[in-house]
Design a protein that fits this description.
This is DNA-binding GntR family transcriptional regulator. The protein is an alpha+beta fold. The protein is built from 8 helices and 12 strands. Strands 1, 5, 6, 7, 8, 9, 10 and 11 form an 8-stranded antiparallel beta sheet that branches. Strands 2-3 form a two-stranded antiparallel ribbon. The protein has a two-stranded parallel sheet with strand order 4-12.
Length: about 250
Amino acid sequence: MTESVTLVKDREPPRYMQLAGELRRKVLSGNFAAEFPTEAELCAQYNVSRFTVREALRRLQAEGLIARRRGSGTTVQPAAARGNALHQPISNVGELLQYALGSRIAYQSLGRVDLPGLAVSHLGETKAAEQWIGFSGLRRVDGDPRPLAMTEVFFAPRLEAVCAALDLSSGTLFAQLDDLAGINVGKVTQDIQAIPASTEVARLLGLRRGNPVLRVIRCYHDLEGRLFEISVSHHPGDRFVYSMHIDVED
């Protein structure tokens, strides 16, 4: 089964989503191991309304990161309760950046390469015969020696000069394109599928061949709708969880 998701870039994420991202990073880094702040403390610390705090906490609760009980306050869920997996929310492009901030990756350049067959299928009328500029790396979370993902990134041939200036240790390559070439992300499409690990994927992720992995293919489009980047990531099935938020409209 494949799940396709389209994320459109927000001009400015709502304040409650920004706050949820800040609190999520602190929860995952263990900052609230002793005690979680009260709503009043969070309002004062971040200079936001109680509504903003409650909406942010509602998102963290939906992700299984915290538990909230009337009369008992808010507590951080232990890693065991979360399956010891990293939770990745996907509601907008900004949350993709938050995922990058919570982990680290150093890429190596592959030069000009043929796109994998899976990536070619996303090109549409784009020239599939052209070689794209490739990079690969293993993403990790601090404190865990096991890789969180094996990621391959491919940039359109027209960006070859820009790719030469990328900082391969910064973690998120597409985020650098605005500074380097004035390219803004307008839309991201994601295809998510559970598959058995190939021999090479299993070797790099420390798995057995055939173990379940989550394959995520992302296609990045600029504000004019032109495809400029394709990434293919493989996540170990027991180390990564995608959390999707669907708000009910009145």
